[in-house]
Amino acid sequence: MSGAGRRRASIRLMLPLALAGGAVLVVAAILLSQRTAESAPAQPIAFSHRTHAEAEIQCLFCHPNALRSDVAGMPSVERCAGCHRTIATTRRRIQTVLGYWERGEPIPWQPINKMADFVFFSHQPHLAAGVGCETCHGDVGKMNAARQVVNMDMGWCLNCHLKQPETAVARLTDCLACHK
Amino acid sequence: MAKVAKPSAESAATGTSRRWAMVVDLDRCTGCQACVVACHAENNIPIVGEEQAGYGRWMHWIIIQRYWEGEYPNVKARFMPVMCQQCTQAPCEPVCPVFATYHSPEGLNAQIYNRCIGTRYCGNACPYKVRTFNWFRPEFPEPLPEQLNPDVSVRSRGIIEKCTFCVQRIRRAELDAAATGLTLADGEIQPACVQTCPPSALFFGDLNDPDSRVSQLARSHRSFRLLEDLGTGPAVIYLKGGETNV
Amino acid sequence: MSEAPADRPLEFEERVLLAKRTDAEINQAVLQPMLRTSPRFWVLVGLLGAIVAWGLYAWSYLVTWGIGTTGKNRPVYWTLFITTFVFWVGISHAGTMISAVLRLLKADWRRPITRGAEAMTAFALMMAGLYPLIHLGRVWKFYWMIPYPNNRFMWPNFQSPLMWDLVAIFTYLIGSTLYLYLALIPDMAMARDHTDGWRYRLYRVLGLGWRGTQGEWHKLHRALGIFSVVIIPVFLSVHSIVSWDFAVTIQPRWHSTIFAPYFVVGAIYSGLAALATILVIVRSGMRLQEFLRAEHFNALGRLVMIAGMAWTYFWFAGFLVEWYGNEPVTRELIQQEVAGSLAPLFYLQMAANLLPIALLALRRVRTTPGLLLASTLLVNVGMYTERLLIVIGSLQRNYLPFNWGTYRPTWVELSIVAMTFAGFALLYTLFSRIVPYVPVWEMKEGRLRYSLRRIGRLLVPTAAEIE
Amino acid sequence: MAHRVSRRGFLKIAAGASVVAGLSPTVRRVALEPFVRPPEEELPGRATWYASTCRQCPAGCGVIVRVINGRARKIEGNPSHPLNRGKLCARGQAGLQVLYNPDRLQNAVRQTGGRGSRRFEPVQWAEATDQLASALKGVGGKARVGFLGGSVPTHLRLLVTRFLEALGSPGPVLFDLHSVLEGGAEAHALADRWFGSADKPIYDIGHAEVIFSFGANFLETWLSPVSQSYDYGTMRQGQSGGRGFLVQFEPRLSMTAASADQWIPVPPGTEGLVALGLGRIIVEENLGRVGSHREHAQLYRDVSVGAVAEASGLSVDRLQKLARAFADADRSVALPGGYLSGFTNASQSMDAVMALNVIMRRLGREGGVFLPHTIPAEAFINPDLPSPFRDFEKLIQKMRDGQVDVLMVHGANPVYELPRWAGFADALTNVPLVVSFSPFINETAAQADLILPDHTYLEGWGFEVCSPGGDRPVVSSQQPAVRPLYDTRSTADVLLKLASSLGGAVSQALPWPDEVAYLEEASAQLLGSSIGVFDARTPAGFWSRWRQLGGWWSTKPIRQEPVARGLPQGPLQVPAASFAGQPNLFPFTLLPYESIALSDGRGADQHWLQETPDPMTTACWNTWVELNPATAAQLGVTDDDIVRVVSTHNALEAPVVVFPGIRPDVVAIPTGQGHQDYGRFAAGRGSNVMDLIAPVVEREAAVLAWGGTRVRVEAVHRSTKLARLESLDGKGRETLR
Question: For a designed S-S bond to A6, which of C15, C209, D248, D428 qualifies (C-beta 3.0 to 4.6 A apart)?
């Protein structure tokens, strides 16, 4: 093999190596920074938000705490039973709900939008600022099983906080506004 | 943004009007440790046990230092509660490589726990040595986790933590005030230590409000700041204790 | 090809460049120890490997349970890890000092020892680079410090000396590795041409198809020339920045303006001493007596001595200001060192740093490998102790006596420190079997300058035009 | 309404919860827990505050408990409570750890392997109460039931008294080390002797100019430390002009002494004598602006200032200066503290101190001595004084003689708190059935056959008549802030159940179906009171406000002026205190002092308190021996060296703390450690100083002279590392100069 050939051979060997290494780094960076939105978790009852939204029930009817508290809250079994003692009582799913009500057991709903432990988040000020439920939760009224639609990561929060009126931005982008 | 020595100017630059400050009246302080336990309860501070505490790894965010003066029988003991001094020119802030500690617009030395990577550089830089480190994973045997304050992160190991002036209470009070449309009066926000202090030796408020209790007390002829000559500009103002001679 | 007249005594350069040996002999003399692996070698590798494995276990133990497994506490937040980090960064300064500075100064005696020195730089930096990772405890959080665009809209804090450290050490590591590698290419080609089997395949890749054309030589020299110049500011900045890790805080004793030059000089002192130590060991281990000669040790010993004098000057200048300033905390620290709990370390530091200067003033010490080894080892003990005193000794005291503390190392820390020493030795040992320890082409090139050529009836010393 | 219930709008104190929503115990995301039926006042994710009463010591401070999602998260002082005024001490703050203690009993248990075997098996509540009921039925004589209480809440004490009365048994015997160390019984006896009062006197620290405290550690554990600390703050900086003058007479520089302007280390047991000397000087020199002291002259007839000076080691000149300082002030007060109760001359010493207040006419004056106003309802009249030690000794004697068939123990832990010579543990073996109501397995419960765990105070109901109650009559109410964590049962409910199953006189005496019914009825007695801070039209409305506010008290300060029944006939005398142990063999006096964090040992199971540094030594998690630097040097020991402290009866080993603020002839050891049982945080830690106490009991005054033990100290040439905050190298300096 000539010298030039040898050189070409080494370059041939090293170039793909370098390219492969770079590609791995890029993919890893993307994977690390981008979690994909999760699919809907399995729920104890196949509750359909769409059905309820089509019946023109407002979000806050079942999740009223969002107006007053940090958390929107899961509707109590009492609230479910309040309607379903008279509505659609013959359906099997509804009977499951009523079964919980009669046994006095809470329904073990699975949470969909999880907030990290180190984040302070309150629904109340967001609602007060006119942020609609769908801004963060997506058009739940069109989903059968509710699922997470946005990745609630820091960049996503900041994207919105940075668009607020100039006077509020300093306060809203202070780390302590959301970190606890 | 350039830092400026005067708290008022600094806050003006960031668009808020507050500079949180604490006044410690050493003449009232009895050294009773109520603040220490209140702080543990409020801030989910882990307990490290005898061996670790003996090796200087206790995690109190506020400690009451006790100084001896003189010799028996003319011996005096003095108490000095020391917590994070929330310096205006904080030596801990510029050294953190990841902004886990930074200066908030209201003059607090914020510590963002989940951003901390544990270089412990801030701990070395702090002349008051008020920063504590989670040497091990904190343990809360069941059912002690029930006591944890949900407004405060439970720190994992490898993280520096320190007094925050109970920032969760400030934030909560501000949110509640906004929701109710009321304004916060002086003295309404109280960190846990201030709230519990039996002889009322601690005061908390806005130093930029000239009429607040802390501002009034800060103007006292008794006031001084800890290690003042280092130029850190602490937001904790001490009032000298006295001695009555009859 | 070249021959010296029997009646003329060899010049210094001729002696150190083996003017009387042929190129082929030199090739053989360099390659032979590489290819020969005695059982002793494998015992050494096994031993070092065992220490490294144990250290890795200690590190995994630390990662599993937390930084609490070390002896750190409040207020002694930085301890052996940072001390050893500073030590390794210091060691890394020798390679550049020898290769770049002496290359620019055209000191020809450097030629046989450059590779050893450059390898030392690279490996010492690798060991140093481990410590920031180990030091965090939660090592996987390290990437927070790397500046890259992210969806948190967060950048690292470039105000922090740790970020400067990251940049400086990374730059220095890349620079010195490239520097090492560049100078290695012709020798890889040489080795490729003299070996077969796996070595051949390895050297073929590493040799990058080097053929030794005029153009290649020209480019290599250009590259090395640029590197030699460019790496010097990096070399100066690295230890300056390491010193600023300490000096920018208001911790008593750290808060000093003289720290940067003091640290750089200390680094050169300990680095050169470490190089001398290693050369003595490698020389006997690989039987390179012919290449690494008394002349080298003499010159190196002189350099160590001069660096030591400079260190002493800076140390004294710092100490004088501290002592004269009489600040209460500093006074307390000095008290501690002179007559308190740190006194054994302090006197060890002084003795181990000053005594070698006096010893190395003697030619006999400089040229006797055993004595040189002893004095340079002493220097490194002294410099390690100096850093212990700076890092740990200072942290044990601060402005509020209530907050003082004491520190005891644990097995985890000691094991990890031992791991990096063993790891360095292991890398170095393996390196010396894979790579020609003596830069053959540099030797040959140097010899060209002092070889005698017959022009007519005259024997004329020729100087190479290149360089 | 005039009162302020809330700190502004958002600290809403809920009206109370008879059933607090129970949620599964998770910390995170608990807000997502779905309810079956949402409780009215609970808003998931938001805090609800419930007012209750702290039970970490008998003071009865009002607390508000922050409850989020059905779990108590924080305890704070109740800002509207007149006793502690929103403040709380370290122990009060740690109350959550009583509730969430990992070593709590989770159900009723029976000890199967014999007493002390610590082998317990769960037992059904019905079965357990039946066993107790049948044991009570089977009791031979009526007087063969014993009830030993510790610091029992007032409502339970009232119920127990009725219960025992109906059974025909003698009333409950109360014994707890905290009361012994604070001199509770002696303080009552003092008030009784001088003023004919059943309540402890109140000392108006907040308004005093000069306070002479004779062994009263009123900022630490004595009586009502939070209230007194609040007043101390006022005394220092809350008044116009002057910052008060506090003099502390005691052999060790306690935390209170550290806050004093002068600490005067008099020899143990001579505090009363010093008071006597001061009184003599005042009377003799007719000091102060209170008119003639002629009528007091006979009180001090037998006092020689020279002899006082000699016994106390104070110069006559110093005594005169002190006397002038006390007498010349407009508002001075002398406090007879708990330390005085630890000597055989307890009552005489306390008389001598109280006499200073009397001769300076400090009774009923601002900054002087008061008596609490009684609660204007029968249900809240204290049925009896805390039992003197004599009563407890009698009970032990009866037990030893086999005259007690059933012993019920609630809140008391004498197996730990008393040395072996007191014979309690031995006497227990002669009692056929021992029932404990402790929520924890403490040393005494470990000797019980049956443990019927009571709720902890954040889960239970009750009230406490605060004594002393600050400046006004106070009943502090207690209500559950959370639903009981485990299958525990209120002792009051157990008694009511027993009463109904026993029938007859007992069930007539205790007719209530449950504890809450009793409490509702009792609280309703205050309905319509003209002085109350609130009133209501119906008992139900009253009950609701009672729970919401955390009790009942008067709108304005009302205090009772103590009227001295006439001065003692004879001249005052303070005999020399007697000590156990020959001075040549046992050269030091032992000073056991109550730990500010662990109290008498009841706080040892709470690790927040274990890690709370002692204010003076900054040590924690252990027991230590405080020695004067000169003494330590003489013994050749220094900090962290272990020494052996030997009394005539026992010995213990503990590390040394070289303590500049202690007399060279005194050795101080804190209480609280040395538990054998009591959970993981307490057991096997440190030593129990009470083991050293020699049996010095003054029969007449019924005093357990816990200060009257002499000890010797031996170096054992070992050392340990005592956990402390302070760096020993720092030598207690503030800064370096």
Answer: C209
